[in-house]
Amino acid sequence: MVAPSSSPLHTAVVDWFAAHARELPWRRPSTTAWHVLVSEIMLQQTPVERVAPVYDAWVRRWPTPADLAAEPSGEAVRAWGRLGYPRRALRLHAAATAIRDHHDGVVPDDLDTLRSLPGIGEYTAAAVAVFAYGHRHAVLDTNVRRVLGRLLGGDALPAPAITAGERARAVAVLPEDEATAAQWSIGLMELGALVCTARSPRCGDCPVRTWCRWHEAGRPAYEGPARRAQAYAGTDRQCRGRLLAVLRESEGPVAGGALRAVWDDATQRERALDGLLDDGLVVLAGDDVYALPG
User: Fold this and answer.
1) Is 249 among the residues known to form the active site?
2) Does one domain contain both 113 and 43?
3) Which residues span the domain enclosing 264?
4) Which residue among 34, 205, 220, 293 is least packed, with the fewest CB closer than 10 Å?
5) What span, in angstroms and rounded, lies between the C-alpha atoms of 75 and 127?
6) Contact (Cβ atoms closer than 8 angstroms) between residue 120 and residue 114
7) Which residue from 272, 235, 244, 256 is spatially nearest to 89, judged by alpha carbons?
8) Domain CATH code at residue 279
9) Residues 42 and 106 in one domain
10) What Å distances lie between residue 77 and 54, 90, 252, 282, 293, CA to CA?
11) Domain harbouring 188, CATH code
12) How far apart are the C-alpha atoms of 275 and 279, rounded to whole Å?
C-alpha cells in the first residue's frame, strides 16, 4: 500500500494528467460547481462525446441552479434530448430547486450536504466536492476502481459493486495535500478512460506501470462473475425513448394515437408509458392526451 503522503506514484499520475488531459467543456477555467454537478449527472453511463454538446447547450440556457429551477421540470426532460436515463433530468431539476431554496443558490461543498440533495449519491457528491472545490475525498467511478484494482490489487477488473475494502484502499492511497489529492483523483479517472481501459489497456503508455501489480503478475484474466453487456434494441428502454422523443419534439400535449404510432408492440408500449407516468417523466393532459411535466 502506498503511503498517503505525496510519493513518486502520486507525482507520476499528476504529471501525466497535466500533460495528457483532454480539453473537455466542464474543465474550462469558467466552470462552476453547478457546471460540475451537471456534467457528473450527465456522464453517468453516457459517453463523453454524447454528453459534451448537450452539456454546452444546458449550461448556456441554465448557467445557475436558480435558472433551471425557475422553469418547469418538463423543460429539463426536453433539453435532456437523447442522453438516455431521462430521470436524471428530473433529479437535476429537483437538485437545482433544493439548491435555490435551501442553499442560497450555491452548490454545497461538503459531502453530507451534497448527499442530502435529491438524486445525489455517494459518487456524485464526492466528485463535486473534489472537482469543483478541490477537497480531499476518494472518487470511485468505474475507471478509478479499475485503475486502483489493477495497480494496488492486481485485479483485472473490479467487482460488480463497490466493496468496503475498495473504499478503504482508495482513501488510504490519497495524498495528504488537498490540491494534490484532487489532481490525483481526476488523473486516475482520466488514466482509466484513456490508457487503463477495460478491454484494451495500453500498458506501454501507462505512467504507473512500474508500480502496477496486475502488470507485474502478467496481466491475469478476469475470473469474477460474468459481465453481460446491456442490450438496448427492442427493450422497454428503447420504447420509452421513442415515446419521450415524440413528446420532446412537440410544442404541446400529444394525443395517444401519436404515441401508439411509434411502437408496434401494444403490451410493451403501454408498459413503457405506464412507467414514464409513474416516474413523473410524462403526465396526463386530458383523456388519452399526454405531455411533459409542467
Assistant:
1) no
2) yes
3) 236-291
4) 220
5) 26
6) yes
7) 244
8) 1.10.10
9) yes
10) 12, 7, 14, 9, 8
11) 1.10.1670.10
12) 6
Residue 244 exposure: Cα atoms within 13 Å on the Cβ side: 31
Cα–Cα distance for residue pair 190/208, rounded to 1 Å: 13
CATH code for the domain of 112 = 1.10.340.30
One-letter amino acid of 37: L
- Least Cα distance to 138 among 165, 116, 118, 106 occurs for 165
Distance (Å, whole) CA 130 – CA 135: 5
Same domain, 85 and 173: no
pLDDT, one tens digit for every residue, the chain (294 residues): 444 556 999 999 999 999 999 999 999 999 999 999 999 999 999 999 999 999 999 999 999 999 999 999 999 999 999 999 999 999 999 999 999 999 999 999 999 999 999 999 999 999 999 999 999 999 999 999 999 999 999 999 999 899 999 999 999 999 999 999 999 999 999 999 999 999 999 999 999 999 999 999 999 998 877 666 668 889 999 999 999 999 999 989 999 999 999 999 999 999 999 999 999 999 999 999 999 998
C-alpha cell at 246: 415524440
Cβ–Cβ under 8 Å, residues 150 and 212: yes
User: Which three cell numbers mark 290?
Assistant: 399526454
Q: Is 117 inside any structural domain?
A: yes
Do 37 and 102 belong to one domain?
yes
Helix (H, G, I), strand (E, B) or coil at 83: coil
**CB distance 9 to 148 below 8 Å:** no
Radius of gyration of the chain (CA): 21
